[in-house]
Design brief:
about 550 residues; alpha+beta; 5-stranded antiparallel sheet; 15 helices; 25 strands; about 30% helix
Amino acid sequence: MGKAAINLEKDTNTTGLLQSAEHIVLISLFCLILLGFFVCNFKALNKSFVDEWKKEVSVQQRLLQTEKSFQERIYKRKDFINLYGAALKTMNLRVVGDFDFVKDTQGVIQRFGTRTDTTTFLKNMEALKETTDEVGTPLVYISLPDKGKYLEIARSDQFCIEGRMSSQIGKLLGNTVDCIDIDALLSTDRTAPPFGEFYFHTDVHCSTYGEFWMAKALTYHLQDRYLVDFPNAQQVFDLEQYSITGYEFVGNTARSAGEYFAGEDWFEIYRPKFETDLKLINPSMSEQRLGPFDVVMLNGYESKPSIDKYTYWVTNYGRFTSPYYQYINKQADNSSPKILLISDSIFMRGASYLALACKELTVLDPRYFKGTEYVAHILSLEHYDAVVVVATSSNFYNISFSSRLETPNLPTKSMISQEGYGEWIANQGICLDTCNDNRVGGKTDIQIEKDAFSVKLYGWAADFCNGAPFQELYLRIGDIITKCEYGIERTSVVDHFKKDSLLKTGFRVEFPITYLQDAKETEIAFVGVSADGQYLYEPVKYRLYSS
């Protein structure tokens, strides 16, 4: 009995020593990878540091730019990332970096975002609901499943995970807005994908079938609840009507740990076997496309010679970073609906297939509005059969997108005297530099190109009575008032007037050409609010001419 106990103790000690030795080997291997990385990339790091620290910007900006510059210069970047991921997997670790990413129990890589205040978005939805109710248009919010439900780490509900915000907003909206609960449908709809196949494992987005099925669920919801007619929905959402091409895919949440740690996804493209005749209008890019599905809906990634598993196939669909674009289905039945979709990139593929069941589908992404009130104007111009909101990114929920055409609360006192200016500056403190990239040069009458889809204005403006930037800058276009993106740094203004306080006086504003309402001549006016917020400067007027 004593010998057996002694032998057991020896075996236990031996096992412990072997495990300790294994850990030492793994840690040593990990350290060697780090050492090799820094040796191979010392020159790149040094050059990035030297180049960026010569610039006259803040320390924080220098550090951020140094990091960005270094990332672009890393030698054998993918190989080192894959080695790092392999080391994590060997050590059975799930956390990448300082909780930048975590692999959940289903093998999905979760990305942590910044905590979002839901107040802004809820106010947006409240205002949007008032507008849609006034015109009798259904408003629907698509509540996506909680992507972090299988995270299984301590206090995981306290983490802000990309993909969690959508379901939280759905609960907060309650009975005030009609919500489609996608999580519930995944359990009850026999055509729904399993939860593990709804989202990609290596990317924040849904799988192609996940978005395709979600578009189908939306059409059936609109049909059943609001009697919105989709005459060809049965054909559009029958997967047998499509030829399917697939590609190995490593998405954006796997880029920090590599394919050995994160695994690979399968990205699918569904091409209709039935005839399609479509039109894309993208005002912000002055772009039009005409033709079948492949020409209008896809961006041609599959024809590029350099495609591999790291090709970012998600943006092969839609017009990523465009604030406003429209699909027109020229073969649609006259009874087919017009839908307004307010969304981030989570539904770009879903939108492409939804458009096949619509007469028109207008897509808005508020993250790229930059002060242009697209929602307000579009809802004032045209009646839609439904307005749909779907998103997952935290920056979408943080953006304020006005949904009502309301005059901002401006001061009532006017600043009309030129005496406070000292040296007379441009036109009452406002200088318009360019219109659609063409120099204005002091003119107040400006010609707009015949084929322009939008009007982009750049310049600078300042409150010279107070020697400071305006508090706010607005642009009035006919009866519409839109807020300019104001506060852009203009070192040339500082250099000219020898006044550091005038640095953040640049502005830009962009609006759709439809704001001009087909008029050959439209008066626009810039309105500045004084730095102390007490006075409203006299409007500075220009005339836009379109042929």
